[in-house]
Write a structure and sequence with these properties.
With 184 residues, the chain is of the alpha/beta class. Helix content is 14%, strand content 32%. It has a single domain, classed as Fumarylacetoacetate hydrolase, domain 2, CATH 3.90.850.10. The protein starts with a strand and ends with a helix. One of its GO terms (molecular function) is acetylpyruvate hydrolase activity.
């Protein structure tokens, strides 16, 4: 049985794995990477559900139910989104061995995430600024809670993204190129 836990009240960093699903690599016609591709989001991008416990003040985490797209990004096809599984690290760690036991020791659990990106800033027109493109306020909704489970159970989760009630993305973590153990 998996336990439901509250979202963390402090998030010092957000790392995102880019191009980590075979379906996405096929969609954008890019080769499968040999190693994980990482970018960062500012913690200011976090958006917790309005009914989530209050995060620690001063860390930029907002609560609410509305993603705010800045006016200068409100052009067709600029703000893009991808439903993701977020790996929530529960203790300070570095150089974690790539074993299920070591990863399970540091991972608190998993939650749903929406990775919103300004494609203009991420692309050549914006100077390939991945961190900036992903870090606008509210560009990383999480939750509603963290589910504690072993890494091996996180390899077959369904990910469904809906926009205005319509399913716009559906995949499974079995399509991940690099699994949880390899990413952590």
């Amino acid at each position: 049985m998996h336990r439901a836990l509250p979202l963390p009240s402090v998030v010092p960093a957000i790392f995102v794995a880019g191009l980590n699903y075979t379906t996405h690599a096929d969609e954008v016609k890019l080769p499968i990477p040999r190693f994980p591709v990482f970018a960062m989001k500012s913690p200011n991008a976090l958006l917790y559900p309005s009914d989530a416990p209050a995060p620690t003040p001063g860390f930029g985490i907002q609560r609410g139910d509305t993603i705010v797209v800045p006016r200068h990004l409100q052009q067709p096809e600029d703000a893009d989104y991808e439903g993701e599984m977020a790996i929530v690290i529960g203790k300070e760690c570095r150089n974690v061995p790539a074993t299920a036991d070591a990863v399970n020791d540091v991972v608190l659990g998993y939650t749903a995430a929406l990775d919103i990106t300004s494609r203009r800033w991420q692309g050549k027109k914006g100077g390939n600024q991945w961190c900036f493109a992903k870090s606008f306020d509210t560009f990383c909704p999480l939750g509603p809670h963290v589910v504690a489970m072993p890494a091996e159970d996180a390899c077959s989760l369904q990910i469904v993204t809906r926009l205005n009630g319509e399913t716009v993305q559906q995949d499974t973590t079995a399509s991940m190129i690099f699994n949880v153990v390899e990413l952590v």
